[in-house]
Amino acid sequence: MTARPGFRLWLAVLVATTLLHVVLAAGLPLSGDEAYYWDCSRHPDWSYFDQPPLVIWGMIPFRAVLGETTLAVRMPAIVASLAVGLLLVPLVRRFGGGYREAAIALLILHLTPAFFVGAFYASTDIGMIACYAAATVAAAAVAEGDLRGWWGFGLAIGFGFLAKFPAVLVLGAIGAALVVSAAARGHLRRPTPWLAALVSVAVTAPVWIWGALHRWDNIRFQLAGRHAADPEPLRQLLDLVLGVLAMLTPFLAIALVVAWVRSRRAGDPGRFVIRVAAAVPVVVFGALAVRTDIAPHWVLPGVVPAAAMLATTSFRWRRGLVVAGGVMGVALSVALVAVVRSPETLLGVEWSYAGQPHRISTSKLSALIGTDDIVREVERRLRPGELMASESYSVVHEFAFRSKGRLPTRLANVNRGSHGLASLYWYAPDDLVGADVLFVTRRDGFDDRLRELFAEVVEEEPVVVRLDGEPVRRMRVLRCRDLRRPDGGFTALPWRARPSSSVRPVTAP
């Protein structure tokens, strides 16, 4: 028996999963959202319109070392997932486990498609999940009487907020600590909790600075723009449940719930706090789902502490549920990776989910085919001094990444979109007025809007991607001359100088 039983197993699992993340991160193409974050990292700022800055800032040093590569963009996610593996050790200890159980919990997480893919996917979620886990550990320490836990909690929730705003839900954990622990309540008579709170607020300052500089557009978007009311509460709740089951597999979802229920033990404040932290995202977003669309991955912060419970709590059928969920989860994950690598294999299959036909459909796979060919053709057609634009933020930023930054891309928010608008704050109207633009889109319906903004709009031959002689992707190309109203969709910034009488400024969408 070594001094640290199970340590080698935990370390082996941690190294193996990290290497897997690196291989997948380097080998799979970026999504439109990932390319959006990459482009944001090329424009360092206090924060960004629809995302806080932590994960985006994290890309900058890796890009400096690894270049403009998929691995550089995804390295912050890989580091965050590594942190999750480290934090599982103190989480399982609160439930009587050790390194062996931490290894099992880490394996359980990677049996789910959510973490198999999400652990290397460049998103704000994995950074927030790591900070949520750290704050949970700190809150449990506070509940057990450790005054230093306040410093850890303050830093973790502050950086979690800088990763993604729902990190504030971990306040439920510190609230639980105060409810069940007299020692934690006693801490409030000392300066440490209040100083830690000030540190936490100071860490979040970049978000508030950006907001103050831009009419609080980021805060107004989070409070109103992102969560518009929807009249289909049952469909929304069903979508959330089905999405969670798909990300975790039904077997592992059941096992996690049973472990949460069975892990209760009276008189253990640390354990109680972790159980609350696991439940809060599910309860809050489940309640919100009856009012608006909720993305299933928003509940994932609670899955990390739940995995610690599953690794340390015995109950009937636990092994069977984990094995069945693992087989299903790995199969789904491998299938997803295969489809992303070779999307043409499913193009002939016509399928969509009736609840979300515009978001979940095999027809969407066509967007994964021929992007490099389209980028090369757009570069060929682009005239000196001309900009390339699209109404789709995914197209704009993905084309910029695929061209290694050569394409001078701009977002044209002519469809009144509400997400992916960070680039509208990078260029002032004075810098855009008079520009010629090659507008590329897969959709119809923007011609009249473009003619309101430009002196002349002429449609050219489309770019068509063919597979085995059959067209599978078509991009319209409109050559737009003399941008007269840049603040009609190309920028959300004010004019630096008074525009001439021939340029009528309008409110940016």
Description:
A hairpin with a 2-residue loop joins β4 (454-467) and β5. Strands 2-1-3-5-4 form a 5-stranded mixed β-sheet. The chain contains 22 helices and 5 strands. The longest helix is centred in the first third of the chain and has 24 residues, at 70-93. Mean pLDDT is 91; it is low at 504-509. It is globular. It has helices at 7-27, 32-41, 54-66, 70-93, 99-110, 113-118, 124-143, 149-163, 171-180, 182-187, 191-203, 205-213, 217-225, 233-248, 250-262, 269-288, 303-312, 318-341, 371-381, 393-402, 429-432, 447-453, and strands at 387-390, 409-411, 437-441, 454-467, 470-483. 45% of the residues are buried. It has 509 residues and is α/β, with parallel strands linked by helices. The protein folds into 2 domains: 7-333, no CATH class; 367-488, no CATH class. α7 (124-143) packs antiparallel against α16 (269-288).
Terminal-residue CA separation: 66 Å
Residues in helix, %: 55-70%
Q: Assign the structural class, choosing from mainly alpha, mainly beta, alpha/beta, alpha+beta, or little secondary structure.
A: alpha/beta
Low-pLDDT segments: 504-509
Provide the spatial order of strands within the biggest beta sheet: 2-1-3-5-4
- Shape descriptor reads globular
- Number of helical runs? 22
Q: What's the helix-strand series?
A: HHHHHHHHHHHHHHHHHHHEHEHEHEE
Number of strands: 5
Could you describe the largest sheet, including whether it forms a barrel? Answer: 5 strands, mixed
Which percent band covers the strand fraction? 5-15%
When the domains are counted, the total is: 2
Backbone CA Rg: 25 Å
What is the mean predicted local confidence, pLDDT?
91
